[in-house]
Structure formats: structure tokens, C-alpha cells
Amino acid sequence: MYRWFQLTSSADLDALVSEISTEYGPTRVIEKLKNGLSSAVKAILIEKNYIDKDYRSTYYNFYAKKGQSYRADCIRLHFFDEAVTFDAQSLKLLGHSERALGDHYFGYMILRPTGIATIGRSVVSPDVRTGTSGSIITANHKVHLLGYKLGVQGFPSMDQHIDISVCAHAACWSVLRHYSEKYTIYREFLTHDITLMAQQFDPGGLVPSKGLQMSHAERVFQEAGTFPLHVVRTDPQDEAFYRQLHAYVESGFPLFAANHDVGHAMAIVGYEWEASNPNPITSMRYAWDEVKSIVVVDDNYLPYQTINKHGGSPYLAGSIDSFIVALPEKIFYPADAVDRLAPTLFKLAPLLGGLPSRDEVTLRYFITTGSALRRFTRSRESEFDPKLIATIMTLPLAQFIWIVEIATGEDWAKGQISARAVLDATASLREITPFWLFHNRTNALVFDRSRVGAGINGIGSLGLSGMQNTAFTRWDQNLRPTQRK
Fold first, then answer.
1. Mean pLDDT of the chain
2. Tens of pLDDT, residues 222-256
């Protein structure tokens, strides 16, 4: 039931083919592992006769009804580094205590007995994905194995089934499984659940293989209890589309994205910055301008495939022409509104004082929570004037807020900013000043949101000492930096 394979090179993976029955597609799977996993993976534990709930959901509702006979059990592969060994007689993982084992465990991959597209529910650490770098949206996934409780930080993925599900189903499933692992408010949805949720009626076996439209994907996310927002690129030069895409990913929301030219869907789960350039900025830039590549979960590849903005393969970030972000209930102010509002912050320069010119900065914006802002402030008390700390701690913030950061070229190269604005994510699109706070080193503008229509008359000024030696740190909190191994 359990077989341990020690790996000294990628060629050793070939030995696994003889250990896995042909209905699990071992040749194709091993080829993907050889090309996609780093040499940090030094051992694989094969767990046979594994009962996978996602495969079972499709087995009972589809494969068991077919004339061809399919197995009901799966195989699960577990990935470890060289520090872990296995005692086949006692079925023990050796080398570390259970608490420390998680530091040497890189996740798992389930193989389903469908003959084609056999990679099922998988969570693999981005640290061991060849060619992946940057920051990734992840959650902690618990794994129970041989009486041990292990954990892996990653994003869920699987191949499309081709018959009962296609790439769009797989992308919807990945996003929703991440939500159910990350946030207790969301329930878990199985593969067959996604198939049913996309239609107003049970589609049977034929319809899912015909593909999904964006409206079907919206229906899936709505049925799951989220509030999907569909954003479409109006033309190939629509940079605002990509600024919104990046802002939502920065906020920790994985995106269901589509390339309609080739009829393909994937989940966007991360990005990588360009190398820092300390040269002065000569015109206003956005965080998207500083992005080198995005990271996707595409069922044609192992997870965390890097997609460059300019050049490279398998396709460009610019080929993505629409996306859906599954938002929580209390976000009423969308990214396109922030994109229009952010440049107007410089109109408040006479009130705030000390702002760099708008032609010398990069604007970055993302969603977070009021409690996260307070934790961030508390963790970096030395950067803030005590009066500003007291203001942040006592503002009656909404649950969700937008953060807009303003950085000069020199700031950006150092991971720092010159000023930060806090916007109300529950604001109305008709509001002129949907702010809570706008501050730099020497001053802070505090906005009165207790009265509807207070507008410019509801702004209070909070003079700050400006004597702190530590610059404001750029706030990176929603994604996990990849630590390549």
C-alpha cells in the first residue's frame, strides 16, 4: 500500500512508472514531475488505495454509470526532501519529530484512474516548482498521513477531466477550494458540485465537456456564496484592465481568467516584480508597470506556471482578456473606481503638504481589512508618529478598506513609500471623498465619515512630528514570497 522512492536525480522518477497502474497515466505524470519539480524533492512516498472525495464525487455521478469499468480508488504521491526517510516495516517517517516534518514536506498529488488527464486534487509548495518565483496566494492545507498531521502552504490544482469537467471547471474548483481552506465562512465544493453549479439543471455527462461561458463561471461563484465581479478588456491597449487584475491579486483574491482567442481558462494566483530600478520616475506609473510576470494555475501544466508580460511562452499575460474576481459581500467600491480616484489624490497636496509630484511616483493599491491595518501599524510602531497610531487605532473603519500607496523611484527600489491613503471599500461610487485617512511623514488628513455628504468640509488635519528616521515600509501582506529550493 505504501512504497518509498529515494531520488538522486530526475531519472530515478522513471522507476515509479512500473509501480503505478496504467489507468493512472504514470508515464505522462512522471514526465510532468521531471520537468516541473526542482531537485529539492529527494523522495516520493506512494500511497495506494487512497479514497479521494473529489474523484468519488465524479465516480458515483458519472464514471460508475459508464459502460467502461473504472476503479473507485486513487493513488496519492507525497513529496519530501532528503532529511526524511521511511521505515517500510513500521510505516514510520523518520528523521524528525512530527512538528518538524512539515518543514521537509512539499505537498501531495492525487492520481485518479481515468486513463487520461489523471492528475487530481493536488497541493504542491511553490518553493519546489521549477522556474517559479515571485509572490503567490497560498493557504495552509492539512494532510493526514500514517497518523501524522502535516501541512503545506500552496494553492490547490488539478487537471480537467476532459469529459465531466473542462479547464473552466478546474479553475473554478481551484479558486473555491482555496477559499474553503483559507476562510471558514466558505464551504467546500467537490468537482461534481462545480459541474452542477454551472447550470440551472443537472447537465448529465455530455454538456460539461462542451465547455463553460463566463456567465456559467459567474453562476458557480454566486452559488458558492461569493459576489463575482466580471471585468472585460475593452481593447488590447486597455492598461486599466491589467491594473485592476493586479490590484485584486495583490489583495489576495485569486482570479478566474480567460483567453477567449483560444478558449482557455486558468486561475491567476501571483506575480513577480521587475528588478528594482532606482532611477527617477519621469511620468506617473502604476504597480502593474513594475510587474515582470504573473503566476497562474493552468491545468495544462503543473501549478504556478510563470507567464511573462512581454515575450516568452506558453502565452503572454496580454492574451488574458477577461477575469472574474469572487469578492466577499462588503466590498462595494471596485478597483476601476480606485484606479480613477488614485491620481486625484494629488489635488489634496495643498492640504497635506510634502507630496512628491505626480509625475515622479508609482501608485499601488489593494484591498485589506481594518484589523490588518491596525496589526501592520502596531508591528511597525517606530515608523509612525504616536498621534497617527492613535488615529488609526480609533478610526471607525469598515471591515474592508482599500490602501493606496505613493512611492518615488527611490522609494520603490528600497521597498518603501512616501504616502499612504486609506479608502472605504464600502463607499458608494457617487462619493467624492471616500477616504478614511491620507498621510505622509509630516501630516495626516482625517476624513469624517460619520456624516453623509461631509465631503471636503469633513477633513481634519493632524500635524505630525516628521522626526522618525525609519521610512514607511511598502505593505506586502496578502501573498507568500516564493523561497526557491
1. 90
2. 999 999 999 999 888 889 999 999 999 999 999 99
Pairing of strands 480-481, 443-447: unpaired
Instruction: Confirm whether pTM is higher than 0.90.
Output: yes
83 phi, psi to nearest 5 deg: -80, -10
> Residues 173, 212: contact at Cβ < 8 Å?
no
Helix (H, G, I), strand (E, B) or coil at 225: coil
Query: CB-based contacts of 177: which residues, under 8 Å, 6+ apart?
Result: 121, 156, 188, 189
Q: How many residues does the chain have?
A: 485
pLDDT in tens, 4-37: 999 987 788 888 898 999 999 999 999 999 999 9
**E strands in 184-223:** none
- Whole-angstrom distance, CA of residue 283 vs CA of residue 178: 38
- Name 42's bridge partners: none
Paired with 154 in beta bridges are 139
* 298 CB-near residues (< 8 Å, 6+ apart): 167, 264, 266, 267, 305
363 burial class (0-12, 13-18, 19+ CB within 10 angstroms)?
A: buried
